[in-house]
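Colleagues,

For the teaching module next term, I've prepared a clean inverse folding example: a structure given as tokens, and then the sequence designed for it. I'd like students to try predicting residues themselves before seeing the answer, so please don't circulate the second half yet.
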């Protein structure tokens, strides 16, 4: 199909006499410290510019990448919000932003939370992702200089990290006569990877149920793709129907005193976007309230989020149970259900959003244009896309018990589908889920030794339910 891929054919021809690169999927490296202040979230590590400025970026979104600039750190300076690394824009200013005059609206940074500030200025620079093909020149970036998240209380909070673009439908992005490179297209044209495509499972940094992240360009790890794979035409940032949202018990006793399985979604189906650049489950208030009325949660009006009542025994039972929030997405008759275990929904808010860390449930009721399933959802979902055949895929991703690394699968430019592994999803969680009857037995045994506490601060083995274990909950750098 040479006429459909002129950019690619041209570069492939001109490269024919050069030494061929590996032509294999490339796996990105992950930052060792997760980012907050509402995670912890896994992030990838990139080096930008000739100075190799190191940054942890969340992978997600299309077109340009966003980076936090170093002078942005002077805002809200009493809170450390720049430890994921920043970009010095000196060169951008010297080069008059390469002449790029396009300025995306603030909410292009993330869709699931309101963003205020000026439109973002842009620049381009080289990105080192640690791949065989070397650095990728002229990657476009929005510069986060004056943009803040605004919550229902009207307060402005700083961004803690940028977002690494996964690609776009066009091989290059152009602003007047300036052309910038789209990472997977460039790598494919350069013959570093088999096609302009990617496979992503962000995984989870939640303490006790960590799942390492996996991001490949040109392919995917089949062990991250479990069960039925739902395919869509177009680009992964498109809108898709959420058909049902249920609380389910998938293993062991129920921690709930109601019959689970009822559809709690208001507005059926609800058209949503998946956006890994956004943190929450940004859903209509009525849907969040349906969930909150069944779970030990207290609404935080100012933030539009829900705090777990960690003193409630039901909270502890839920966090030890094999229960999930089950999202059914797709068209009628062509659906996939993604289970997000409640352990991954015990996330942490940190300063400046709160004074001291608290556990929260990420249903977000703030005003957003389109409902968004953000990173909280993507902890347990695989998203892949082939930008050449214009197909993308969604599937259940595994829990903490990952199988030993297996063969990586390539995505070829003509591929319309991908195949997952035959791994049983529940088996990747079963060791985490303490059967509730075991937990109750522990509590009972404990009760004979210590004074049982109805507010749950006294636990078997002398642990405390809401101790801060300090294992990477805070934001950090990637050094
Ligand atoms: C952060 O800085 C911005 C800009 O100065 C300010 O408007 C906002 O109130 C600050 N936010 C917090 C939480 O201090
Ligand atoms: C990067 O962009 C600049 C400015 O448009 C151009 O001169 C240069 O050739 C480009 N470099 C590459 C490797 O594409
Ligand atoms: C791939 O990119 C590297 C670094 O930019 C360059 O040296 C090499 O020639 C390119 N290879 C091909 C096949 O285009
Ligand atoms: C929930 O998360 C908090 C951190 O915010 C952690 O300290 C606590 O142990 C977790 N609770 C359970 C029951 O896993
Ligand atoms: C704890 O007390 C309960 C009720 O009195 C009793 O049935 C159980 O055997 C006791 N457990 C231990 C370990 O003593
Ligand atoms: C919770 O339990 C702790 C320890 O048993 C106790 O000190 C505290 O007063 C209790 N709080 C409430 C609100 O009951």
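(Answer key — instructors only)
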């Amino acid at each position: 199909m040479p006429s459909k891929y002129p950019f690619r054919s041209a570069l492939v021809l001109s490269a024919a006499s050069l030494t061929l690169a590996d032509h294999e999927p490339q796996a990105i490296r992950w930052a060792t410290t997760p980012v907050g202040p509402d995670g912890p979230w896994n992030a990838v590590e990139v080096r930008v510019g000739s100075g190799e400025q190191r940054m942890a970026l969340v992978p997600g979104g299309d077109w340009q990448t966003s980076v936090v600039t170093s002078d942005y750190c002077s805002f809200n300076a009493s809170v450390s919000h720049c430890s994921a690394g920043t970009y010095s824009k000196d060169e951008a200013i010297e080069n008059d932003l390469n002449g790029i005059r396009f300025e995306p609206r603030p909410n292009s940074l993330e869709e699931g939370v309101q963003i205020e500030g000026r439109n973002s200025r842009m620049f381009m620079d080289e990105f080192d992702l640690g791949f065989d093909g070397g650095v990728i020149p002229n990657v476009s970036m929005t510069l986060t200089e004056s943009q803040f998240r605004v919550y229902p209380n009207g307060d402005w909070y700083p961004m803690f990290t940028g977002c690494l673009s996964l690609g776009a439908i066009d091989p290059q992005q152009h602003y007047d006569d300036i052309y910038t490179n789209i990472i997977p297209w460039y790598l494919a044209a350069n013959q570093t990877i088999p096609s302009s495509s990617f496979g992503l499972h962000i995984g989870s940094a939640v303490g006790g149920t960590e799942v390492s992240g996996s991001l490949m360009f040109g392919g995917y790890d089949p062990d991250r793709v479990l069960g039925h794979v739902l395919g869509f035409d177009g680009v992964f940032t498109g809108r898709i129907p959420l058909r049902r949202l249920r609380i389910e018990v998938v293993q062991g006793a129920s921690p709930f005193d109601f019959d689970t399985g009822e559809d709690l979604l208001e507005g059926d189906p609800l058209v949503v976007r998946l956006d890994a650049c956004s943190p929450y489950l940004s859903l209509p208030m009525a849907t969040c309230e349906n969930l909150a009325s069944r779970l030990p949660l207290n609404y935080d009006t100012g933030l539009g989020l829900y705090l777990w009542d960690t003193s409630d025994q039901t909270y502890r039972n839920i966090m030890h149970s094999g229960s999930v929030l089950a999202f059914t997405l797709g068209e009628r008759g062509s659906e996939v259900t993604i289970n997000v275990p409640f352990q991954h929904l015990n996330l942490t808010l940190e300063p400046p959003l709160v004074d001291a860390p608290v556990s929260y449930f990420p249903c977000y009721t703030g005003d957003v244009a389109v409902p968004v399933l953000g990173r909280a959802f993507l902890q347990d979902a695989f998203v892949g896309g082939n930008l050449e055949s214009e197909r993308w895929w969604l599937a259940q991703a595994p829990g903490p018990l990952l199988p030993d690394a297996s063969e990586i699968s390539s995505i070829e430019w003509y591929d319309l589908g991908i195949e997952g592994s035959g791994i049983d999803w529940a088996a990747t969680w079963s060791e985490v889920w303490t059967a509730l009857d075991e937990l109750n037995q522990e509590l009972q045994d404990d009760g004979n030794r210590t004074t049982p506490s109805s507010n749950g601060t006294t636990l078997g083995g002398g642990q405390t339910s809401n101790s801060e274990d300090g294992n990477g909950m805070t934001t950090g750098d990637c050094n």
